[in-house]
Amino acid sequence: MKYLIANWKSTKNVEAALSWVDTFNKFVYKDKNLQKKLNENYLKIIICPSYHLLYPIKKSIYKNKNVVLGSQNVSFFDQGNYTGEVSAQNIKDLVEFSIVGHSERRKYLKEKDNEIDQKVMLLKDYSIEPILCIRDEKDLIPDKVNYIAYEPVYAIGTGKNENVNDVINTKNKINLGSNSVFIYGGSVNPENMTQYLQSSEINGFLVGNASKDPQSFIEMASKI
Ligand code: PGA
């Protein structure tokens, strides 16, 4: 199974998100080959919008077991009186996955390893699969994390994607379990993704900028 994950970050309001979904759906309806890949568990598409978009997208997105939603974050508190927080319990009916530890959160929100651990634990409690972002081989990987997204900071949003050999070198330094899914992220786009697809070491992509436009996102899905 290959994974294509859209990380829209904090960019879309409801109208923009629904317009993206509309275009996405039209493309998928036209692309029989893509439908086959989804139906045959060859490809899973995970769309990670901001929280406010989860429900409207869930309602309107192309229905398929391999087109699912993820959140971009989750609270390290369980459900309760934590004004402004969104807990794993709050979103468990909407998402199958949740990104945790994205480098932008580590940088701008000063997110710490113990908070990331706590988030992973809560997600697991509510049967949501964490996708842990690591910046390099030194970032800690809590037990029970199966999905690792390696995203070198210099490559995020810069157009400077890391070449496939360097990505694999880093992978080899990480202690991965046999069930681990290894995902690369950092300026992946329809043009540069071929080199990664040629390697069986890379199980998927976490895509920021190139996922915000439905056409380039679909182009990537078709190439996988
Ligand atoms: P990018 O973002 O594709 O724009 O580099 C990736 C990410 O931050 O997850």
Would you tell me which CATH topology applies? TIM Barrel
State the fourth-level CATH superfamily.
Aldolase class I
CATH class: Alpha Beta
* Count of alpha/pi helices: 9
- Measured between the Cα atoms of the first and last residue, the distance is 10 Å
Low-confidence stretches: none
Helix content: 25-40%
What report would you give on this structure?
This protein has a single domain, classed as Alpha-Beta Barrel (TIM Barrel), CATH 3.20.20.70. The radius of gyration is 16 Å and the shape is globular. It contains nine helices and eight strands. It has an eight-stranded parallel barrel with strand order 1-2-3-4-5-6-7-8, surrounded by five helices. With 224 residues, it is α/β, with parallel strands linked by helices. Bound molecules: 2-phosphoglycolic acid. 2-phosphoglycolic acid binds next to strand 8.
SSE blueprint:
Blueprint (H helix, E strand, L loop, with lengths): L1 E6 L6 H17 L1 H8 L3 E6 L5 H7 L6 E5 L16 H4 L5 E4 L2 H6 L4 H13 L3 E6 L12 E4 L13 H10 L7 E5 L8 H4 L6 E4 L6 H10 L1
Parallel strand pairs: 1-2, 1-8, 2-3, 3-4, 4-5, 5-6, 6-7, 7-8
